[in-house]
Amino acid sequence: MGVLYHNPRCSKSRQTLALVEASNQEHDVVLYLENPLDIDSILSLLSRLEDSPESLVRVNDAEPGQELSEFLASNEGIAELLSKQPKLMQRPIFDDGSTARICRPPELVCGMLDDA
Prior knowledge:
Layout: E1 2-6, H1 11-23, E2 27-31, H2 39-48, H3 69-72, H4 75-84, E3 93-95, E4 100-102
């Protein structure tokens, strides 16, 4: 079973959700903006992330003048930042329990699905 960290306002996230649903793979959808992940959950996600830990942070969505470099220096800093500011978490992310992947483009999820 997989978990999709989803933002319904994001077209890439909606496209990824459609691909996951079409695969008939069991999955959960986590609306991380409504239910922010705690630090331990983010650290766990980072441990499975295929990409660099920094890629999980949407640096271009930070407030003007907000300095992120101290947070980006460590997984713990990234987890702290994203637990407090979930809107900065990259999306969509599909986590199959052993690998987590940022699905940009959405088709990146296909190799992770049972029926792909």
